[in-house]
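Anyone able to model this chain together with GLP?
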Amino acid sequence: MKVIIRKNSAEGSLWTAHYIAAKINEKAAKSDKPFVIGLCTGSTPIETYAELIRMVKAGEVSFKNVISFNMDEYVGLPVEHPESYHSFMHKYLFDHIDEPAENIHILDGNAPDLGAECEAYEKAIAAAGGFDLFLGGIGEDGHIAFNEPFSSLESRTRVVTLTRDTREVNARFFDGDWEKVPAQAMSVGVATVLSAKEVIIIAWGSKKARALKDAIEGPMSHYCTVSGLQAHPAGTIVCDEQAVGELKVNSYRYFKAIEAAESGK
Ligand code: GLP
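re: yes, here you go
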């Protein structure tokens, strides 16, 4: 695992957007095959998406041959609801870039058969060739996508029940009322995320510090589902100084030294 530590979310977001754009351009230069990416919602990726939009508009990257799959969606929330992840993604990314509409995949939380929708999603990911890169955020309890504590690290796309903690954290988007936050969601599994060739997890602020400590220094455990990243051959956490506030000083120094050595600084 690599940990890239930046001064603040603005610098971490720039690093992340430029890294993703470079990966898309690198594949486009040597192959006609689409670049398949997993995407997340939440406040964390907004600045990264803003920089990707700027880069598309400046001609520095194109999403014309990118296929995306979002990691999760609430169950039962109308697609047009401002807090649906469909609305979020269009507002903060898809409405401003050149990704063809047919390449955009988001789980349908209103599908008549939710189980069949989840199975079809896994099949569509496989049919697209699997993920080149998965971009994820994390919850304050270390959940990835909506894989709450004690979700299997072998899990795949399915319907999940949200914890009271997660509903309370997300109540800020629902008039501050946790009971308005849907009780269920559909989510790619931990194993779905880890099936990607490369996984980038972004985290900003001290409220993510405990989750990052568990993910980086703790044992790999279903208690903190993002800790599954420890078993991935190409996992990177991009974070700011506040988010690593709970790491041991020596762990912090280790990741800083590795990055400096690899970038020749
Ligand atoms: C929700 C989403 C996660 C996201 C998390 C963090 O629980 N299902 O995918 O990573 O929120 O949100 P934020 O980025 O707003 O802290």
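The longest strand covers residues 235-240.
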